[in-house]
Design goal:
By secondary structure, the chain is mainly α. The chain contains three helices and no strands. Helix 1 runs antiparallel to helix 2 and helix 2 packs antiparallel against helix 3. The chain is elongated and about 40 Å long.
Amino acid sequence: MKTLTISLMLASLLALAGCGTTTGQRAGSGALMGAAAGGIIGSMSGSWGTGALIGAGVGAAGGYLVDQHKKGHID
């Protein structure tokens, strides 16, 4: 059950990672959503701060990649 919940949360965050119209907005929104998800997942293992930092990095990278894909730079 825990794995299913985490998988659904990550899938929904990935879908929302590119919210915004500029590269900075998309990376920023991805970082915020990633930090929130990482904090929640990290709190399950006792280290919410580490989870939030990792989630922010992954979210920012995801937002940037979505932006570059929408601009046609990545196929």
